[in-house]
Amino acid sequence: MQTAEVATEPVAAGESSSTESSDSSSKSQASDKSSIPGTLVDLSSEYDQYASKAEKQLDKTPGSKSIVQELKKLTKEEEKKKAEKKKKRKCDPSKYPKIPKGKKAVIRINYRPA
Questions:
Q1: Which one, 58, 68, 77, 114, has least CB within 10 Å?
Q2: What are phi and psi of 26, to 5 degrees?
Q3: How far apart are CA 20 and CA 11, in angstroms?
């Protein structure tokens, strides 16, 4: 979380009126959070606006619907390939000996500490 910090410096007695006016202007700007750099802003509304503009622009361009459909097909194909790889990764139980019920399996790995 970032917050805006206002630098305050000690002021001589004759300069107090000029700094007070600048402090009051900075307080008025604090009410408008988007004008101060470094303050927290709700980005979800800005993202929604950007996304809607992008969708409108896609609708205006010729052939954009076919491009979007192709992208959706490609992503579906990639998801299918990933699912197939996950299925292949699973252990094949026929390769390993069956462990009788009630017995505990001890897996030994050849490990030699250096």
A1: 114
A2: -70, -30
A3: 10
Q: Are 33 and 1 in contact (CB under 8 A)?
A: no
d(CA 55, CA 47): 12
Q: What's this model's pTM, rounded to 2 decimal places?
A: 0.26
Residue pLDDT, tens place only, 23-37: 444 444 445 555 566
What is the residue type of 89?
Answer: R
* Cα radius of gyration (the chain): 32
Instruction: Using alpha carbons only, give the angle 103, 105, 111 rounded to the nearest 5 degrees.
Output: 155
**∠ CA(38), CA(43), CA(47), 5° rounding?**
135
Reading the block at residue 103, the tokens are 């017995």
CB 36 within 8 A of CB 29: yes
Q: How far is CA 66 from its chain centroid? A: 28
How many other CB atoms are found less than 10 A from the CB of residue 58?
Answer: 12
